[in-house]
Amino acid sequence: MKYVDDFRNSEIARGMAARIHRAVERRRRYRLMEFCGGHTHAIARYGLTALLPPQIELIHGPGCPVCVLPVGRVDSAIELALDHGVTLCTYGDTLRVPGSKRMSLYKARAAGADVRVVYSVSDAIALAKAEPAREVVFFGIGFETTTPPTALALAQAREMALDNFSVFGNHVLTPAAMRHLLAEDADQSARLDGFIGPSHVSTVIGVAPYRAISRDFVKPVVIAGFEPLDVLQSVLMLVEQINQCRADTENQFTRAVTEAGNTRAQALVHAAFETRDSFEWRGLGAVPQSALAIRSEFAQWDAERRYALVPRVAADVKTCQCGAILRGCAKPSDCKLFATVCTPATPFGACMVSSEGACAAHYQYGRFVAPALSSARAPRAVTSA
Amino acid sequence: MKYVDDFRNSEIARGMAARIHRAVERRRRYRLMEFCGGHTHAIARYGLTALLPPQIELIHGPGCPVCVLPVGRVDSAIELALDHGVTLCTYGDTLRVPGSKRMSLYKARAAGADVRVVYSVSDAIALAKAEPAREVVFFGIGFETTTPPTALALAQAREMALDNFSVFGNHVLTPAAMRHLLAEDADQSARLDGFIGPSHVSTVIGVAPYRAISRDFVKPVVIAGFEPLDVLQSVLMLVEQINQCRADTENQFTRAVTEAGNTRAQALVHAAFETRDSFEWRGLGAVPQSALAIRSEFAQWDAERRYALVPRVAADVKTCQCGAILRGCAKPSDCKLFATVCTPATPFGACMVSSEGACAAHYQYGRFVAPALSSARAPRAVTSA
Amino acid sequence: MTALPTSPRQPEFGRKLDLKQGRIDLTHGAGGRASAQLVAELFAPAFANEWLAQGNDQAIVPMPAGRLALTTDSHVVAPLFFPGGDIGTLAVNGTVNDLAVGGATPLYLTAGFILEEGLALADLARVVTSMAQAARAANVRIVAGDTKVVERGKADGVFITTAGVGVVPEGVRLDGAQARPGDAVLVSGALAEHGLAVLSQRENLGFDSSIVSDCAALNGLTVAMLAACPSLRLMRDPTRGGLGNTLNEICAQSDVGMRLDETALPLRAPVRAACEFYGLDPLYIANEGKLIAVCADEDADALLAVMRAHPLGRDAVRIGTVIDDAYRFVRLTTSFGGERLVDWLHGEMLPRIC
Amino acid sequence: MTALPTSPRQPEFGRKLDLKQGRIDLTHGAGGRASAQLVAELFAPAFANEWLAQGNDQAIVPMPAGRLALTTDSHVVAPLFFPGGDIGTLAVNGTVNDLAVGGATPLYLTAGFILEEGLALADLARVVTSMAQAARAANVRIVAGDTKVVERGKADGVFITTAGVGVVPEGVRLDGAQARPGDAVLVSGALAEHGLAVLSQRENLGFDSSIVSDCAALNGLTVAMLAACPSLRLMRDPTRGGLGNTLNEICAQSDVGMRLDETALPLRAPVRAACEFYGLDPLYIANEGKLIAVCADEDADALLAVMRAHPLGRDAVRIGTVIDDAYRFVRLTTSFGGERLVDWLHGEMLPRIC
Amino acid sequence: MCLAMPVEVIELLPEQRARASVDGVTREISLALVDNVVPGDFVLLHVGFAIGKLDRAAAEATLAQLAELGRQPGEGATP
Amino acid sequence: MCLAMPVEVIELLPEQRARASVDGVTREISLALVDNVVPGDFVLLHVGFAIGKLDRAAAEATLAQLAELGRQPGEGATP
Ligand code: SF4
Ligand code: SF4
Ligand SMILES: [Mg+2]
Ligand SMILES: [Mg+2]
Ligand SMILES: [Mg+2]
Ligand SMILES: [Mg+2]
Ligand SMILES: [Mg+2]
Ligand SMILES: [Mg+2]
Ligand SMILES: [Mg+2]
Ligand SMILES: [Mg+2]
Ligand SMILES: [Mg+2]
Ligand SMILES: [Mg+2]
């Protein structure tokens, strides 16, 4: 795969790792948060931690748009599908996300809801066009990367006067979450020495939003591609900034991120969405200015208005350590539920929901010494493939 | 079964048969048409022909409301189900009735039509009530026996303002068909010495309509129950009338038929239906005044109007001898198609469609010496139950 | 190594399957953790036996000497539960019986489940329990299985396909082609009860009656019959298509006809009444615990005596005789002394108005 | 008697089945004339063999000495036809392979069909023809079958449940519980091609590629492997759940762990690309013509040589080693020299955005 | 023909409905097409509706007639 | 994370659509979110949409940097 495999060269990776080893100052700690699940994935998938010197600590951030979907929004999606009888079109990632009372869209389907996995919002538009008697709701989730297609769908729906289509909007904003992590308490800010900045999000929003963060919080940010060499190079760039006491925003992912980003996509998003005052993130709680709402011009295509959804408040599971993990204050193995009752098949918290979540990644890729395993000792399988 | 098994006593039947043997005049022929399929069924099912003296010839009439449904009306039912996308509720008997181009409601189902077998028109009403988004059409077929429930359903639909329900009306009138058989040509009339008159039809319409026929055509009619002893007694009564040169209408089925019939049912039918000028009968062609149309007061619940059905004219299969058989001029075994390509599984004509049709009854119950069998010599079954 | 148990084990499942409130969803069919849990917590304990417990892609089982009998049936009944049984009892007994009527001793079953998303786990558990009970009663082991889940609207609750393996003892040679003119035709009991028990539960058609499915495993009865009657030509269970269709199959295979005596046909009063209600012919309605036997005329009485001594053959009767007939017709002498044909079933048995 | 043929025969069917334009309707499942015609004109000629032709409720077949292997799988793939095969080839090969990987010689299959009303007869005929071809290729006989028809919307075209019977030669003892630390883990060829070939045909997901299902019968390959390698511990076909799930099953059964080498995993370029497109992990995607083998380390090279000499094992490679591991983890050494777990599959493999 | 059978009404239900029974088989039927039915009456049932009452006296009379007519000549029948 | 991958546009289609290809796997994508794409261009594909163009010169430059940075000390790297 061109422009993919090149960035997975293990020979170069070893050289990069050696260079990082040489670059770190022996007594110093480098606490770097990779904001995005994509980076978490690359780190776990390629075992990058093992290549890095002990001075570097990677902290998993809240950068998985599926994981951070709060219980209340999942409940509303289930309400749409079960109680309002709509056909809910969704990306495959959301099916296992837990709502309250152990519900999920998988279970809602089993209970009779019409929930369909789509690869693209275009599939939902096509379904609504083909079957005018069906009410189609698209479950819009995702960061700035995924928002432009949803914005385009809203524009198309209006243009086509497609009145059996609407969007349940849950798009969230990454810079707001980064700011929140840094602003919430001084300790937190003090614990982070720099950010590995979003990759594909930045393709859309460009470099500018991070420059402001670097300046406001005096933190270095390096926008990094999702391939393992991208991550290593960005770590090196952060180490160098920290050594030099700089706090700039730099761009490692120059092949896909420009200063201004994708202005066409930004304009589409701006036309269809406005910023919410506040939005709940699973694990983080309410984060100001961190999500988008559909503009009133599109009220007819806004499922929240169309079905008069009442905001649902539902608490995260108490013993779940996600909040601390997402803030960089705890590790998955610190959670009592990890790999006992909370597993990728039966996730409790944000971090276990998507395979990119910190707990899921640790479960799948990093659980070399697992905690005491559950005592379920079931008989062997009757069926075999 | 009380009032059923009593009328199936074979001991008494043998005595009745002996009495009929004694009653017939040796040189005379008694050509008796049993109008109803119910009688045809009893005759075949109990092997009554074998009990009767050779002087008595039983001729099968057109008395099966399913068999006489013409191709065009079946085509319209299929059109409703396939092209108008309605849910067509029907009695189970109609599924195999052939329309044109080898279609049937069975095949329409296979092609995607929503065709549901109901036991009663009430089931269709209940479905329409329960699912307001569904257009439910009841395929109303049958003689005077089956018409009152349909009339009641129309009245209920109006009362409940049930606007997703309608009736595709094909109810037909037996006295009109009897008159037609007698009136159409003098030969035909001359060939019949008397009628075994309808049983459950008469429960509804009473005795009066037949009195007029007896008078107008000088033919004896005996209204007879459907059990074998009823048939035998009625044959005896007809033999006696013929011997005495009488042409009266008599009532053997006194336990269920009164002079006036069921006036409540008649009133309901009259309120909902009016007589059609003419109606096509499979095998008989157009028969004047022989069927009911839904009155204009119920236009909204009349599927013919609601879906603007264009009357379809489609010819019966040419080589089919049904017309002659229904007129009493031929027997099933006279037809080249009988038991070769025309079988109960693949019926061509009216007489093979329902198990009460003359050809089907002969196939099922009376085909002791079959014609040359088809040469299909397929290998044995792979599946077994 | 730590003190972990040394026996093989499943992945961790987190919480247990909710067999009361839970439902089948697509993950139960995806072959991963949820599939393994369904097997571990439901199927394996219910069907427990050493071969199943091997957990391989195939069960490897011992086999006594003799020829092998193989059969399969897919089961799709609606509703899943009916008076006298459910799809689980049916799936076991239907396949056991197809082995038994071949003279085989049923030994092993396999079971393939196709589950519809949304199926209540409680219903599945009930069905599986029924299967386990029926298998114990019939003395067969369910040694291999498979489970697939399809989306809602792409199945109807649960379909179960069972296959059966039995061994045919030396000297036993039953065959549908062995009926000879003069042979006696016997039936082991009252007809049409399974089909009507199912029908009685259908929406819109529902009626109340004492009719209960006759669903049962016939291998006990067939063993007794084989031991008692060396002239036994064939046995068959008149399931789908009923007595009428099954006898036509035998006539076609053996190139003979049959003459039945209507007055001998064992029909209970509620069965006759329910058939009269809906215009159904009991001769074409399914049985799931009855068999037809054909034997030499002279052995018929002795065989009937043996059948009647078994609980499942208490009402066994002779219903007719095999005849020579170029057309291979099944002819019925009516109670009136007339005759009619009992033809192959055409179409379905549906409630009729005429 | 007249000059009628003396061989058994079907009822008259009137006109022949329209295998071009016709569709399955409910009468084809009612057990009467239409059912018999479907069997006579489609299934019987396609699967023709003497046991099937007996037309009894069970097939009675000869059986060589040895232990018996039994297996079953239900097949529910959508769409029914995909590059490289269809549900018919799958239904035969899937069951043949479950026998073959147990060291058995597959001999007999049974097939239960559940058909949806409205299924095009042409599609059914195509599937049945594929089954017949696959059975011939695998040298197995389809000796018993069953067909049910359910109403439109209560199935998905056609479901096929096959059961398989094979014989395990003396001396062959494969078992998923026999893997021992130090053993070599081999795979017979490139991974994930069946699952992706099916996915490529799904509406909304459709992509074009050269990816073709690997669906094939492995019994030729397994015979060669058994002959060549006395230390063969076990074989398994990594179907639903893919390599990842299947290796976890083996580790659970054998109470061991495994260490795989990522660079050794055979993945063709289009498979890697398609997985990248949709966020799928090829380790969990189904194969239908591949097997995993575990053997003593010292025999691995010889076994690989034998496998590579067979057309279905041309790309066989060693992918890892069995290790002692209390947690029975499958660990993958990444191309970067890191390590990750290859866990049991959880949920389904669905296209993802993140 | 028109399938119909005599059934005994065993219980009146609201909305002109009733339970009817034959040989231990019972189901709900509609009485909307007939007047003055009470439990114990027999009605003629067709497609779920009573289409007429059965006149038990007439039934018995017919049966008596049939018994008489069906008696073999040697059995001392009245003419 | 947000799954996205570089794909090569091989054919422009009507309505701002295109065929894209990676290693012999092709599918239709939407170009509605990007400007001035021509066949041969690489775009970043996410949920069926090109969300940005890939700057091939920048990519090559990064690769060159990486090759340089990744060279082991003994290999004669420039600082
Ligand atoms: S293991 Fe589960 S419960 Fe614990 S922090 Fe992670 S997601 Fe939350
Ligand atoms: S056998 Fe068929 S074609 Fe011939 S008259 Fe009877 S119904 Fe018509
Ligand atoms: Mg397998
Ligand atoms: Mg399986
Ligand atoms: Mg059977
Ligand atoms: Mg069968
Ligand atoms: Mg069978
Ligand atoms: Mg069976
Ligand atoms: Mg369903
Ligand atoms: Mg299997
Ligand atoms: Mg298999
Ligand atoms: Mg379907």
Automatic annotation (TrEMBL), chains A, B:
InterPro entries (alphabetical): Hyd_form_HypD, HypD_1, HypD_2_sf
Pfam families (alphabetical): HypD
UniProt key word Chloroplast: no
Presence of the UniProt keyword Iron in the record: yes
Keywords: Iron, Metal-binding
Signal sequence range: none
Family the UniProt entry places it in: Belongs to the HypD family.
Full protein name: Hydrogenase maturation factor
TrEMBL record, chains C, D:
Coiled coil ranges: none
Domain PurM-like N-terminal: 55-168
TM region positions: none
Pfam families recorded: AIRS, AIRS_C
Secretion signal span: none
Gene3D superfamilies: PurM-like C-terminal domain, PurM-like, N-terminal domain
Top-rank taxon, per record: Bacteria
Domain PurM-like C-terminal span(s) in chain numbering: 180-326
InterPro entries: HypE, PurM-like_C_dom, PurM-like_C_sf, PurM-like_N, PurM-like_N_sf
Family: Belongs to the HypE family.
PANTHER family attached to this UniProt entry: CARBAMOYL DEHYDRATASE HYPE, HYDROGENASE ISOENZYMES FORMATION PROTEIN HYPE
Record protein name field: Hydrogenase maturation carbamoyl dehydratase HypE
Species annotation: Paraburkholderia tropica
UniProtKB/TrEMBL annotation, chains E, F:
UniProt-listed InterPro entries: Hydrogenase_HupF/HypC
GO terms for MF: carbon dioxide binding; iron ion binding
Biological-process GO terms, alphabetical: protein maturation
PANTHER family named among the record's database cross-references: HYDROGENASE MATURATION FACTOR HYBG (PTHR35177)
Family as reported in the entry's similarity comment: Belongs to the HupF/HypC family.
Protein's recorded name: Hydrogenase maturation protein HypC
Organism: Paraburkholderia tropica
